[in-house]
Amino acid sequence: MSKIFVDKKAYEVNPKQNLLEACLGHGLDLPYFCWHPAMGSVGACRQCAVKVYRDENDTRGRIVMACMTPITENMLVSIQDPEVKDFRAGIIEGLMMSHPHDCPVCDEGGECHLQDMTVMSGHNYRRYEFRKRTFRNQYLGPLLNHEMNRCIQCYRCTRFYNEYAGGKDFGPQVLRNLVYFGRAEDGVLENEFSGNLVEVCPTGVFTDKTLKQHYTRKWDLQMAPTVCAHCALGCNTTAGERYGTLRRIVNRYNSQVNGYFLCDRGRFGYEHVNSARRIRSARARRDGQLADIPKAEALDRFSSFAAAGKMIGIGSPRSSLEANFALRALVGPENFYAGISDAAHRLLGEMLAILRQGPAPASLLQIEHADAALVLGEDVTNVAPRMALTLRQTVRQVWLDKAEKMRIPRWQDHAVRELAQKDHGPLFVASPYATRLDDVATETHRAAPDDIARLGFAVAHILDSASPEVPGLPEPVRAQAERIAKALQEAARPAVVSGVSTGSVAVVRAAADVARALAKAGKPVAFALAMEEMNSLGLAMMEPKPLGEALEAARRGDAQTVVVLENDLYRRAPAETVDALIGAAAHVVVLDSLEGRTTEKAELLLPSTPFAEADGTVVSSEGRAQRFFRVYPPPGDIQDAWRWLADVLGLLTRPEGLSWKNLDDLVEAVARTFPALERIRDAAPRASFRIAGAKIPRQPHRYSGRTSMLANIAVSEPKPPEDPDSALSFTMEGAPVEPPAALQPFFWTGGWNSIQSVNKFQEEIAGPLRGGDAGVRLIEPAAGSAPGYLNTVPAAFTPRSAEWLVVARHHIFGSEELSANAPAIAELSPKPYVALGAEDAASLGAAEGAAVEVKLEGGSARLPLRIESGLPRGVAALPAGLGPLDGITLPIWGRIELTR
Amino acid sequence: METPLTAKIRPDGEMIDLAAYERAGGYQAARKAMQMAPQEIIEEVKKSNLRGRGGAGFPTGQKWSFVPLGADAPRPKYLVANGDEMEPGTFKDRVLLEGDPHEVIEGMIIAARAIEAERGYIFLRGEYTDAGQRIGRALHEAKEKGYLGKNIFGSGTDFDLRLHMSGGRYMCGEETGLLNALEGKRANPRAKPPFPQVSGLFGKPTIVQNIETLCNVPHIIEKGAEWFQKLSLTGDGGTKLYGASGKVKKPGCWELPMGTPLRELLEKYAGGMQDGVQFRGLLPGGASTDFLTTEHLDVPMDFTSVAKAGSRLGTGTMIILDDKTCPVGMVHNLEHFFAQESCGWCTPCWSGLHWAEEILWAIETGRGTPADLERLEYICKMTAPGNTFCALAPGAAEPLQSALKYFREDFERHIREKRCPWRDGQ
Ligand SMILES: Cc1cc2nc3c(=O)[nH]c(=O)nc-3n(C[C@H](O)[C@H](O)[C@H](O)COP(=O)(O)O)c2cc1C
Ligand code: SF4
Ligand code: SF4
Ligand code: SF4
Ligand code: FES
Q1: Does the model's pTM come out above 0.80?
Q2: Is A46–B351 a contact, with Cβ atoms under 8 angstroms apart?
Q3: Which residue in A787, A335, A293, A284 sits closest to A546, CA to CA?
Q4: Interface mutation target, options B345, B360, B376, chain A, most CBs of A under 10 Å
Q5: Among A413, A659, A748, B163, which residue is least crowded by beta carbons within 10 Å?
Q6: What is the ipTM of this complex?
């Protein structure tokens, strides 16, 4: 720590930070624009000016930009000096010269960093009296609005989009006061992280287009801390509601997980909550049709099925631990099945076992800090999108380290980039097809899943000869394995990433062996396995039985009632298998929030809550248990799945049902039943938590219309709904005190209305939130334990003559079930296709777009052909989770024929 | 009087080719340098007190001494000759580039040896097409002879030198903007530190040097630092290419001892003012320097003395203002240029210069108010050195702030009379 003096007061600061960060970290108000806590400093806007003084005798001082100034011991600084205050006001005056001043009609208004900084600087009246510069706006796709007249030329957008996220189709054009930030022509922004521009841009140039469909000011949003429902990384989000509809998602800072950024699926997938296909009341089948029934009747029916016995439950990786647990309790552990394909189940079980033995699953922050990475068989961008943005920073670490040695501070962003140029640290990507990270990869390796596994095992063997040797490896692959091993060995902090993309246990095991070999060599290896769904790992930790056994049970007549928890089984197994399961049962009960193929088959359908209306705990692929909270009370008879199930247990007078009064009771039950889940208790404070005797309000202090918003229905203001499940309230009242991170409903503080107020909640800038980031890690293998190698080297892949190995290809937009129901995401989803390599397509005599017949065990379909030059011979790809064959678990051998 | 820089230039305006250049003693300095250790060359240049002729006047030898030398230094290292010369009123590098391209090349060969650079670029203003052709020809000749490329002069070291024609922006002349432009990026400047000597072109140690600066180097090596010092009338060593434009009898460019007094330049070399016009003031070193007026005519034109008089030597090529030209119109013209050339990176510059241009045009066209003068002063304060990211905006403020000081009555008269007295006839 160093000591500095700001306006004569002493502060202890981290000498590795710059002066702006040090000041902000101590709660001092110093305006800024171009600096970003995750992207560092470039000194463009000149807003963060302060004065520094040579010594006590220096009375004039010198104006410097705080963001470009390193800390020196005992430095003398003034923020309040009149001359520099005047300079900062002058900068705002300059920025505002052509600004439209359209706050009342601007989507950014009320949470605008430019507004906040303007007020902070004291600038009031514009003296510029000439014509303003104006721009033409662009169509940028369904996610973002573009309103260039509001631009202040701070360059944050291009620094994020081009430099941080690797986008290529956007950038600054022209110069002087006419710099234009946009694309060469109108069109959908290509980068998967474009939505972050909403928060990165300090003005209303880039705003959320989905929010605009149902616009509400931040101050009018009822908000709650939640967790992204669209992959397993567990990014922390804040969701906002008004008048019973979900309005938007913004990032909720968590230094270990998502930091400052989300992916576009996570930000814009929320609209499934507002879908017209929402199930809003209980329904029962009458004369072949599903018709609404009262809640009491639904519970009666359900409990009568339960009383009859022979009931099985099918859990879900997109449901909370509590919901899965309640189902498990209702049907009994022996009748609780995983709602995923058997292959996915095996793979998930394998991943859990591997992580439990170690190395422990890494946080995204750990992966970001790695200085070399191997991505083995994983399409990170399309399965665990936010991790791809992380890996783009991983490849910069080598140069950040080098820069630091040359006394270029890590935060001096452009200086580090100028030094590094296009060079990146080692990143190796092995995948059957091209991936979005290839552009920053040192080397790529295209192969079938088994060959990818062999490459991984070969790397492990080179790192440690105690791990199994790979027989018959072709020389170029062996040489590549040598290069990969060398890079990982030379790294101080290597990372190994794999996951579910190839659907191959061998690939995951190979990745584990590489990670283990590195760990054995004493490296602090960052090991991560990508998974698909919000609670994939949590479901696995509850040890459900495989889905295939449910079918057997049904065939045996042991499944008179099948209860399906928040799951479309037609995405998990071929239609005939699901039909057989459902057909064998006398009663089918489905709990879900959206109509789908499975809900259509229900005899009894119970409306459960999508994430924004739900409370629960999920376990991310990092093994981090995180609690999410409802944003608003679910309307009508909709309630959490766990509550439906607890109600039935209550009607059956089962002890659990009688004792489960709120979420905490379920959390407690889960924690007591599963030692591995014991710590979920600490994921967030209990419902009884109070600050100064009060709950934490979900509504901001400026929430308007509370007394009148329902006046068209009744003039008296209704009593706010109670929330028995959390320490959050559906009101504005509460102590103006900072809640623990897990309960933080929104970031907002005096004078800092925009999301950048998160500065005020951190221990230090870009550090953990005060009191610790949200969530608890559940999987920490004992230190020093050295797990053995997995010793399962598969044989080399051999193409077959008339068959192809059909692998899954994930799509960030389209492959994930819930977000695919959000209109903006659906618009970006690809149409169903089958892909072949160029040579294979030629051997088939099929051109791009030709109609081909794909015949798999479990179903066939006619699909247009996509030629992807990188695909290895003998391998075909189908989009995961979309299209007519989405229930068939891949990879699988199948025939592909040209349609005559 | 010795004129080492321009002595070889042919009176007919054609370039001097390699053979003629060598006959006149050319490339002897380069040969000599090949026998010298890098540190020796740097020491000699340091002793000569050669200061950069690109405008800032930074001691050249000292700049070179910041480049890491030896086996551990990052490679390749670069030497870049700055021939962007877009400073309004400046045309002195052009004289050298067109007249004696081999002198530029020889200077670069020696400088490259001093910093152990293996690659070099001549970054040339896009409009300098004649110079471009001549440099191209000279590069070819030198390569043929083995003076460039691999194992130059049989010394065992390589120097690969190439010509780059600029896309054309004033900012491309600022050394770090130049580096970005050379890398194919927007010509925004880079933060210093790190200085280009440590992390420059493509992230490698780089020296950017003005054309005229480089042309001095062979002569220093050939004749020694002491000789070079003595060429000058003052402490700053060597000769200087001075120039004059405006309503003088003989506008032009002359190589004279450093420190030649302004009055001598104006009266003896530029031939005094044209008949019927009176001298009012001048910008001594290009558009981005402060006005000097009659009271300053005895100032010796070197870095130290001009700075003492409240301006800068800059490029040493002066623009002269006469009494038949409107100072407001002149300054408006300059600020129009600067506002247009602002790279758009930092707020005080892109917003302030645009505003200044608008205000000046309002005053010039009879729409000015007394408050406008305060605003112009305010803009000059906002764009002071250190407040902006690079030196373009502070340079742009110099003619404006000094015009407000020396020609204030003219500004006030525009505002009072709501017209330009020059435009509408006096
Ligand atoms: C806006 C701007 C334009 C410049 N243009 C030139 C130029 O055209 N030629 C040049 O030699 N120096 C120019 N400079 C100065 C360079 O930044 C740099 O100082 C110079 O090339 C260093 O060479 P020297 O030390 O030999 O003078 C310019 C500086 C600024 C701020
Ligand atoms: S669009 Fe936004 S982020 Fe980009 S430069 Fe303009 S104000 Fe800054
Ligand atoms: S989809 Fe995944 S990566 Fe994207 S915001 Fe959600 S949790 Fe994060
Ligand atoms: S002063 Fe600022 S805007 Fe102007 S040219 Fe330099 S960096 Fe660009
Ligand atoms: S925040 Fe420091 S210059 Fe922009």
Answers
A1: yes
A2: no
A3: A335
A4: B345
A5: A659
A6: 0.96
